Amino acid sequence: MSAPTAAPAAHDAPIAAAPPGEAPAGAAHAPPPSAAQPAASSTVPPTQAAQPAPAAPAVDPAVAKQHEKEHKRLEKQLHKEEKAEDKQVTHALKATQRQAKEEKKATKAEAKARKQLDKLVTKEAKYAKGLARAQEKHDKVVADLNKAKQDLDAKTQAHTRLVAERDPKQHELNQARALKEEHDAARKARLSADEVRPAAGVAAH
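Given the sequence above, the corresponding structure tokens read:
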């Protein structure tokens, strides 16, 4: 509680000096500085006083031991599950890394195969173009060859025909020559006989 307020002293009345250790006359009696001031709310009504905490019920040692045993079993099971899941994550991570590595390798192989294909396509087109020109030349040569064969056949037939006609012509020539020789001899004999006859007539006269 608050200390009682002292009545105000008259300002015009002088305060008499007090002996050492005593308060001046007329001054308010204040409590000593060392005196503890009572707290305003230190008094608690009896109805609001703190009640003592109820005592904890006694725990059966067997129940506590069983609970501890079950807790360790649960802890072991959870640790086992965690370890299994860690193993699954590690396995999945390795599988993912292996798949990524194989995919990268497959990508390079595909690019290499595509490059080889493009190269062969270009080469095939080049050779196909050259083959077309060669085929054109080949076709022309084949046509010329066939024409030459036909020409040879015609020439061979003509030669064969002429050879076949040679003997009759030669025979006809031989006959013509023999006949001419025969006729030449006859004409010569007639001419000679005609020349002898006038000379004989002149001799007769």
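Residues 1-42 have pLDDT under 50 and may be disordered. Try to locate this feature in the token string yourself.
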